[in-house]
């Protein structure tokens, strides 16, 4: 870094930063001027979501840098009109993060376009085909995007969409980084398998593309909730409501927005379906791999379900229709518990097949395995199976809180989610306020620690569970049933929300109810007095 003018910074002695274009968890993006070629470019310094990564995990920081460089170089070889062009990579060496110099797209983002109004099904399908083509080009060189959303689709002045911000792919793949527990990606556009901590594969990018198209034509996100935690719960546990404005695009959305990635059509099929909506011919250049060349897989299997948690369902290729509830065969209550915290621990659930391991070391039991043992009469950490208790009842709720606080050795948490069958709490680590440990209670005599934990979300203020009026919560649940318009909920849960210095807010609690047709929630203070009510919109 050098300085050309007192108020300007120059990267690598060549790229003068002119103004900030945007930024997020992955770093800042600047408009810059290339002093050598005399053209404007976009410059991004890719950084991890946790700025202290290099301090407490130098190996993770080194791995991140190497992966960013490797994937940026791979992406630079992708010459595609719908993929952002990589012009240059600035590598400052060890203990630095790379700067990626990219094509500058002047027309704003798809999010800016959608802020002005919805798209017609044909318009969305045409855009979807171009974004799909970009994804296929990246998948062909082994890169998954992992954060397909309207803000990451830039629009050229002629309307051509350009997919950008591939840097998240490298960050998500860093094993050391993901162990810290940072949320990587936009929760409301992430596929369920990625939310639950699995690899995902190209099929997960197709889910995100479908969700982008759903938002484009419907004008709202079907699973977005009031908090990250609640959104993650919805992505994992709720079916996507059938669109009402998608017209001929409905079949594409229903086919892709299913929780089982293997039930989704592959990219070639999706292109044909989108082409049918637009009236155009499918892209013949992407119909099939050349002879002798293997195409990358379009999906990866999820971990087998726990028999006690899920009733097997036949494979399906479309989303559930109104009046019919279909539960994903691979998303279990225990896996849901793995993901639900203020931040995510990206733990790859080990394969539970009984086949030979080939001499590999036996993996540590995951949260889902622990839950399966408890529910099937086995034990984990000395905990035996016990009679099922509704933890959202007056007795069950107070018992869950008491058992969790006993296991945690204190009453402060950075998050707590209570379902009827289990409860999960994240408690700050003594002497390390940026870290938390995770605890689970599924009934019985004790709660158990289900590590590893992760890093506390920036700005979160640990809340003392003793400040909540637990006696009043059952009445709050009853109130939610009366006013939220969900008469027979298939899912209900309580979320304890800590305060935040970022949003200048204090602790609250939220009750969520959902059925086949959607969700609703209300928010209350620590005394269970209702602050906000958001009933389901049946219109």
TrEMBL record:
* Stated name of the protein: non-specific serine/threonine protein kinase
Note down the stretches annotated as region Disordered: 279-328, 353-382
Q: Give the compositionally biased regions (Low complexity).
A: 280-291
Protein kinase domain: from which residue to which, for each copy? Answer: 15-274
Q: Does the keyword Nucleotide-binding apply?
A: yes
Going by the record, the broad EC class of this enzyme is transferase
Which residues hold ATP? Answer: 44
Kindly state which keywords UniProt assigns to this record, in alphabetical order: ATP-binding, Kinase, Nucleotide-binding, Serine/threonine-protein kinase, Transferase
Question: What's one GO MF term for it?
Answer: protein serine/threonine kinase activity
So what EC number does this one have? 2.7.11.1
What superkingdom heads the lineage? Bacteria
Q: Which CDD domains match?
A: STKc_PknB_like (cd14014)
């Amino acid at each position: 870094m050098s300085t050309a003018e007192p108020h300007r910074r120059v990267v690598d002695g060549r790229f003068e930063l002119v103004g900030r274009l945007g930024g997020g968890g992955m770093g800042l993006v600047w408009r810059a001027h290339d002093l050598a070629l005399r053209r404007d470019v976009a410059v991004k310094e890719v950084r991890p979501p946790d700025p202290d990564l290099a301090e407490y995990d130098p190996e993770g920081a080194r791995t991140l840098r190497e992966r960013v460089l490797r994937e940026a170089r791979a992406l630079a070889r992708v010459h595609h009109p719908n993929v952002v062009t990589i012009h240059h990579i600035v590598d400052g060496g060890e203990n630095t993060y790379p700067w990626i110099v990219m094509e500058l797209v002047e027309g704003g983002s798809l999010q800016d376009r959608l802020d002005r109004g919805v798209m017609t099904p044909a318009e969305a399908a045409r855009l979807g085909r171009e974004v799909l083509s970009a994804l296929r080009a990246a998948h062909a060189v082994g890169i998954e995007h992992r954060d397909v959303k309207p803000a990451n689709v830039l629009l050229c002045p002629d309307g051509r969409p350009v997919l950008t911000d591939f840097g998240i792919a490298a960050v998500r793949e860093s094993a050391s980084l993901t162990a810290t527990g940072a949320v990587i990606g936009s929760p409301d556009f992430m596929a369920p398998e990625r939310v639950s901590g699995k690899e995902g594969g190209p099929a997960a990018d197709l889910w995100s593309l479908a969700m982008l198209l759903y938002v484009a034509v419907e004008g709202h996100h079907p699973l977005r909730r009031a908090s990250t935690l609640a959104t993650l719960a919805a992505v994992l546990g709720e079916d996507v409501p059938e669109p009402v404005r998608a017209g001929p695009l409905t079949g594409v959305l229903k086919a892709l927005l299913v929780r089982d990635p293997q039930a989704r059509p592959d990219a070639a099929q999706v292109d044909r379906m989108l082409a049918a909506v637009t009236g155009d011919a499918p892209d013949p250049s992407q119909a099939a791999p050349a002879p002798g060349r293997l195409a990358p897989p379009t999906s990866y299997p999820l971990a087998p379900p726990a028999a006690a948690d899920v009733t097997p369902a036949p494979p399906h290729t479309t989303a559930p229709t109104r009046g019919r509830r279909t539960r994903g065969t691979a998303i279990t209550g225990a896996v849901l518990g793995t993901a639900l915290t203020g931040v995510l621990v990206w733990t790859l659930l080990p394969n539970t097949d009984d086949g030979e391991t080939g001499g590999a070391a036996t993996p540590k039991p995951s949260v889902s395995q622990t839950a399966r043992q408890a529910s099937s009469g086995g034990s984990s950490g000395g905990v035996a199976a016990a009679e099922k208790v509704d933890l959202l009842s007056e007795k069950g709720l107070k018992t869950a809180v008491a058992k969790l606080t006993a296991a945690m050795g204190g009453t402060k948490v950075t998050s707590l989610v209570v379902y009827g069958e289990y409860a999960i709490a994240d408690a700050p680590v003594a002497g390390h306020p940026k870290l938390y440990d995770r605890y689970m209670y599924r009934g019985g005599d004790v709660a158990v620690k289900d590590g590893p934990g992760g890093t506390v979300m920036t700005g979160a203020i640990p809340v003392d569970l003793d400040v909540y009026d637990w006696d009043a919560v059952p009445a709050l649940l009853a109130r939610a049933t009366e006013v939220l318009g969900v008469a027979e909920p298939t899912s209900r849960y309580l979320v304890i929300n800590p305060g935040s210095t970022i949003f200048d807010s204090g602790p609250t609690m939220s009750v969520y109810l959902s059925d086949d047709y959607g969700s609703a929630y209300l928010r209350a203070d620590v005394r269970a007095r209702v602050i906000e009510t958001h009933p389901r919109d049946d219109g």
